[in-house]
What does this fold into?
Amino acid sequence: MGAGAKKPTNIFKLSMGDDPKEVNNWRLWFATFSFGIMGAARGIDEGLISGTFNTKDFQESLGLDTLGDVEYANVKGNVSAMVQIGSVAGALLAFVLADRIGRLWATRQLCILWILGIVIFLTNNGSLGQVYAGRFIAGIGIGQTTVIAPVYISEVAPKSIRGLCTCVFAGSVYIGKPFEYESKRNKP
It folds into this structure.
């Protein structure tokens, strides 16, 4: 090592500052993981809708196989955009809900919205309007995850590792992408 070079820092043995060491326990990491994994919702959704659009059954049930290239691209773009539009509404709604009903109840209702949207989407029976509605409602739930999960994690994490804990949410957005890849790769 040259003059003035410091010894490398072991990031796993960083100082907890004035936080008691007891706060760094399994409950903290369980809560961090549980709320952090909500970030995967967006990645999973983005991946699965593109795979769903490429299936012959989905295209035939909605009559997409009879559309021209431009019309097909418009429908595909609109279906994909419904989640994004719903996410904006969900993120705005989450600010109010998280303060009014609390983080845990807000999480419960966002899961119900997400599931409801998926059920509406899956039971479309050839109705493109129902596909749009289901994707929009699911988007409201997904959009709420971007507010509720990081806020909850930052509230329960001690200040010395708060940034690390909230990074779990940001990193889990990319966990959904491998699910999408595997679902396309292992199609029967």
Notes: The chain has one domain: 24-185. The longest helix spans residues 69-101. The chain has a mean pLDDT of 85.
